[in-house]
Amino acid sequence: MDIFGGAPRVLGYPRPVVAQCGTVATLRCQIDGDPRPDVIWEHKSIQILSDGHYKLTEEGKAYLLTITGVTPQDAGQYICKAKNSIGETYAAFGGHMNEVDLPSDDKPRFLIKPLSLRVDRGEDAAFSCKIWGTPTPEVTWEKDGKKLNDIFESAHFSVSNQDGGWFQLKIYRTRMPDKGVYTCRAINCYSEALAGAVLLIEPVPERQESKIVSASKAKKFAVAEGKHAKFRCFVTGKPKPDIFWKKDGVPLEPGRRHLIFEDREGYYTLKVLYCKVQDTGLYVCAASNALGNTLSAVHLSVKGPAVRFTCPLKDVEVRERDVAVLECEVPNESIPSAWYLEDQRLMPSSKYGMEQKGTKRRLTIHDVGTDDDGVYLCEMPDGGKSIAELSVKGTIVRKLPRKLEVLEGENAVFCVEVESDDMEIHWFKDGFKLHESHQTILKSFGKTHILVFVNVAYQDSGVVTFVAGRSKTSSRLKVKGTFRKHCPPICPVGVKMDMDRPNSALLTWTPAPNSQTSTRSIFVVERQEVGSQEWQKCFTTETTTSAEIAGDSVQCEGDYRFRVCCINKYGRSGHVEFPKAVHLVPGPKIHRSLKGCEVTEGEDAHFSIELSATMVGTWFLNSAQLQHGGRYSIKQSQTKHSLVIHETCAAEDTAEVTFIANGVRDSAVLKVKHSDSDKRVDIGDAIVLYCEVSHPCAKVSWFKDGKELQVDDGLNIQSDGNMRRIVIQSADESHSGVYTCETTGDVIKFNVNVAVVIQVTSFTILCLVYNLQSSVSDLVCLRYKDGCEIQPGDNITLQAEGTMRRLIIRSAEASDAGSYTCQAGNNSIDFTVNVRGTRTFPTPVGSSTDDIVMESYISEEIHLQCELSRSSGKVRWFKDGQVMEESNNVQLISEGPYRRLTILNGSAEDGGEYVCETDGDSVFFQLTVKEPPVKIISPSESELELTHLASERLELSCEISHVDAPVRWYKDSLEVDEGPNLVLEVEGAKRRLVIPLTTVDDTGEYICDTEDDSVAFLVTITEPPVKILRKSEIKTNLKSMLSDDIVLECELSRANAVAKWYKDNCRIEDDERYCEEEEGAFRSLVILNAELGDSGEYFLDVGDDSISFQVTVEGTIDLVTFQLNAQEMMAGEDLILACEVSRANAPVQWYCNDKLLTSDSRTYIENWLLYDSISFSIKEPPVTFVHKKDDIVVTGYEAESVTLTSYVSKEGAQVRWLKDWSPVEGERFRALVEGHERTLTIEPLRRSDAGEYTCDVNTDQIHFSLLVKELHNTTVLEGEDATFKCVVSPEDVQLAWIMDNEPITLGNRFQADQNGLCHTLVIKKCQMIWCVTRSLRAPCHFYFCLVFSEAQVMFTKKMEAVMAEEFEDATLETEISLEMGEVQWMRQGVVIQPGPRYTLAQNGCKRTLTLHNLTLSDRGTYRCETLHDRTQVKLNVELCLYLKCLTDQETFERETASFEVELSHTDVEGIWQKDGIRVKPNNNWRVSTNGLVHGLTLSNLTLEDTGTIVFSAEGVRTTARLTIKETPVSILKTLTDVRVEEELPATLECEFSRQIIEVRWLKNGKEMKPGKNCRIYSMGRKRFCQIMQCSLADSGTYTCDAGEVNTSCSLEVYGKTVTTKLAHKYISFLQIFMISGLDQNAVFMCEVSLEDVTGEWYRDGHKIRPTSTIKIRTEGTKHFLLMCNVKAEDVGEIRFAARDVESTAYLEVEELPVSIVKPLRDRTALEKHRVILECTVSSPRCSAVWYKGREELVPSDRLEILADGCSLKLVINQVTVEDEGTYSVEVGEHTSKAKLMVEGEFRTSRLLYFPFIDG
């Protein structure tokens, strides 16, 4: 019965195929069914039909899909469907999207990525990377998404590459704008790769030339308070300038309210957010580079609202987890207000508390986190705002921006800074943990951490979160599209989870009702392990709305949650989470899959597969199950399975090898190659030997039997591209031998055998006839072929000669084969004739027998060629089914075994399918003839740099390969249009762009573009150098007279040139006498009213030219000589001096005692200068004191002031004040001058100020005696009366009472009385504010000092701790000593104000605070304070908490247990304990919190984990018992029934699932004990019971009992058989003996029937002799062989021989697996040094193989492979850069890898990571 009959069934599943572009890919699927099914192939839901690109074929039960000329569009999933009348099936690539992909070795990839840098401004920066790819990829560098050529001048950077795949970008003399993200893009024909790095530029302090900008000249800008102000400044220059923003001369740094950036239009932008009045000022944008600097200024005015806040908000700084309070005051208590966090409206919640008391408005922020850091606003309805900044100090020092907006294609940069550099940090996006990739850069520099998204797309929008410990900061990333009219999809609805199926969950959902159907969307299901923050994608689908998640899809056992969202090209919808969580256990998986094997015929083929768990598997070859033995060797070592097929044959080529084990299935293809080195030809045939070399220019030499061959008449040596051939036209016996083709470093051999063949062109059948009764000649013979009589013909002759009869057939053909009969009378004889011939098989040259796809261009010569199996074969050529004949354009050539079709001049009509056909075989060619690409012939370079001067003619020219091909010209990526100043010319194959008159604006990149090629011209137009015209005609030596005007003038070559004038190397600035003038191209300097000092060298600098002028000013002044007699004058009189000069305009100067005189308030000079000196002598009268008195005594009171006054005779006289003849100094002394009055005021007076004071004017003095008296203090208590008395004479004097220099108004508080000379002032109920000085003003003064002794307000009753429950009221009460005393209540330093939740009351001396509707946040310490005392009390709010209790759990070892508690409150911290010890999370113990639910998951449990689990939170507690049981014991191998002969040993064996287990052996229910004849032992999991010498009584039922399980068997012992030959031939046979592990002992015992019989032991046929490790002994009839410390080489056949009997056993030694104890480590070495890679293994007896990549290493001059005991070493001497790579050592089944880095000369230092701060 055919088990595969009936419905179609897949025998061999198709495997993923990897193919290169342009090659052939074959998909193979084996399907069987009865009746034979119809099979179709589909790709992307479209049925595939046979055409030029696809070919469908069948090979028995195998169905093949062949794809010729593979393109990237062919990638995807292919489905093979089979259907017959009974059923249908299909096969795909395992249900996965295994695309027809490119080989990973050819794609570009970064072996070493560029590292981020931080350099000082002005230093060079270099990025290096190592890239692999075939062909070598093209590498381009970009900065922030822009090409470097677009933003940098060519001299600022260089891009280079070096051998070994190294590429480098170097930036010279870095500038501040150079900082940013640099990306390296590697592209080849297969794919592209991307890597990025960050460059930080540290500013270097340098002196800035600051220009003073007048605010009156700056532009004016006004903004309302609370609004944003944005300033934009457009600056150009090369090199790119550095930009600095300043406010009122102080540099601005980026911050919370100041954003500084360069926008997408090239504007440098400063944005001031939420402007305050303090932001009013002058803002300056300063730009500078190496060639100069400039600036632009604007004045910002911030206008306040019409209604202002009475008390505005103030900035606050708090720590994380604290409470922040913002408070302000509005003008009217009826005005409502709203709170904002930047642009987000805040509402009252548990997070934000909002209070309103009278005009005060308060915002309380509880549990402050990092994301609460920001700008807060309180806004009134009329638009008035009060602004404050909240700074949160904590783990994260620098936070993420609240949001970040970027355009598609740009880079998104996030930067944070934490307080310490050893913190564990994580980045998340939309809940997914981020990892480093080619488009995601994660960098850490100490305390600074950076995240960069490279080339963001619209779907990258989302929430980015940075987590450091318990702190986190978030930012919303918004990616803007240029034209975005569509919206992201809507999240699905109706989610359900079905958990009825074991170890799986069925998830279902429904698309949103109003979701778009026109846009392709996919559903994405994600999973999250309970206790983890990371979500992982696990399922995607376009159409289905359900997904079954099985345990096989998870990595580890645990509880999992799921969520689903919808994604289309416009974005992602929100996530919808499925209810509940499901427990999943992972199933078996393939860790290392099967790989195809390609061997030569006769070699062994090796296949291996490694699973995730140990299990039994089955091997199949073409659906036939394989068994161990013969040609097939099947082994299993734990999780590794292997198959070896010995001596493969050609019939097994393309056979499918399949492995199946417990739901795991994998297949591979076996390819068997024929050996081409042996070649057999017949005499006369042509010998063609060919090989292919790697390079078309490689030279080879041909040898025969060691002798080099030369070209002669019969031997031709050919070279065609990479093919090398030798052709011998006609072979003979001498051509047999060994032929070799040798090239540098390689050789290939051919064994040629020329066979002697007798060509049969006819044959003869001969027979002899004998007849004894009649004449032989009369006997008639009849001849038959296949039963038909043969008649003579053209090629058939019948002959009879005597007894001879012949049948001759000439020119035999295949049809002549058959059975021939010669019949004579009753006798006959039969002949069987076989006619053998040769068939001709064509094969394409240098290719397989598959279709050949060729491409050619029009007008080219096309060659189609194939090779026949023999030279005489004939072929026919067909094109699209039509026979090809020779013509003028088509040639059919035959050369030895080669047949060639040549088309001399190809055209588009020549494309099609060509067939070379011979007898029984054919070769197909798919030819495509297309237009040749339009190439640019000249210039040959792809990029040229041109420099022209302005106003010159610019001509850009290129020559193309096609005369009439169109081209397009572009300037800076924009297509150019012809105009008056731009001409496009066409002349034959040449194309020109001509600009007759160039300007600087014509600078740029010009591209001449065809459809297939382009060339770029980098044109730089510079202004011509500025020259001074007619320089030789200019008079440069000028002489001028005093007071004349001097004019220096010249003409320049350009009217817009900048000219600078210098005098004696100092720049001349415009003033009243120097005037710089410009008129067209003329530049002049005018010096007005020349002076002698104007003589010197004048220099004009115009950049590219200069000129010097030598100016000399001459002239004299004639004075009229006169004599002025000396005069004496009184002080205060006027002095007039006059002189006369010879010229009216002559300058003069006046001097007094050699000091130059200038005009001032006392001196008037009519003319300028006088050169003669005149002496004057004026005597002044001495200065004296007027109204002078002797012994002036001044009295003052302490703490008051006193003034000393004197008068001098001259107003301008200077005086000195002395105390006790020492100068008076100090802040309390103030000397004043007013006309003739001189005063000294001392305030306040001290007792030490008493003494003698002197006022001195050098010529006179006046003295004062100062007495300081102490005030009389009056001390009263607050609230008492104060009384002041004084006695004044006379009685009727008018007096006034003064308090602090203010007259006292008498009334209820102040009462004055008089009794004779006694005056009294009484102050009723004094208050502290009156602690002042009182005085009585009369003709004399009395001073009193009133001092209050404050009545202290003390607490007479301290508060006691208060306990209250949540949601109730609590009252805090205390008592003070004074009824009128004031108190204030405080909590955490914040004063508590009356409100809805707080009631403050007083009753006599009692003071109370009542808190209503208590919450947990009200817990804490409350303080009540007076000015002199304080008391505090602790308020404890008991949580009104309830929970769902834990339940006891019981499970087995290595399982997982989960406990969950549901509380009534969120944000409650719970504590898990086990056996009284608090649980700390680790890999096996996970603690999680999700809202109200607290969970504890314990995985990989052991017996020691049994105990009590306790959960406690806020006074509530629940417990549960966790019980861990041993995993139930199971029987892997049961006992089997044993039948044994009497006196022979018997062994009972079984195997359990655990090693450590107690068992009992029972016989017939009775427990057995070890004894002399009974041996009970164990080996690993196996248990043995061995009866050494069985007797009939030993028969019975034996049981091995492990408690939970048991296994039984029967032992039957039968008696000896009685024979005539006695027992000397009876022997107890040896059995196979296996030793597990080396260095153990092996014991063999053989028992014969007779004693004193000599026996001998043999191993593998060699006699064993006793040694130190081998012992042989005999005990009666028993013979023993003991082998100590067995080795692997002791394996073999052990044989015991005694007389004519023998017994054989096999010794197998199973080596313990070798493991790597200490793996390899990554190493970095300097070039030309020595490096050692070392690892340690567990056993010295092991074989190790070293690899570099996939190449096996062998010892050489530079390479040493050493083994020192358990240490394995690889030593590389004189290491080079080429030695870089991944090295590995393979020891048994274990492999260790390490990377070797070699620092070459071009890498001078290690690159370091530094932080990047987004500007």
From TrEMBL:
It is found in: Cytoplasm; Nucleus. InterPro entries: FN3_dom, FN3_sf, Ig-like_dom, Ig-like_dom_sf, Ig-like_fold, Ig_I-set, Ig_sub, Ig_sub2. Residues 488-587 form the Fibronectin type-III domain. SUPFAM superfamilies: Fibronectin type III, Immunoglobulin. The keyword ATP-binding does not apply. Residues 8-91, 108-195, 205-301, 305-391, 667-753, 842-928, 932-1022, 1024-1112, 1181-1265, 1278-1436, 1528-1619, 1713-1797 form the Ig-like domain. PROSITE patterns: FN3, IG_LIKE. Pfam families: I-set. CDD domains: FN3 (cd00063), Ig (cd00096). Coiled coil: none annotated. Keywords: Cytoplasm, Disulfide bond, Immunoglobulin domain, Nucleus, Phosphoprotein, Repeat. It comes from the Eukaryota. Belongs to the protein kinase superfamily. CAMK Ser/Thr protein kinase family. This is Obscurin like cytoskeletal adaptor 1a. It comes from Sparus aurata (Gilthead sea bream). The gene is OBSL1.
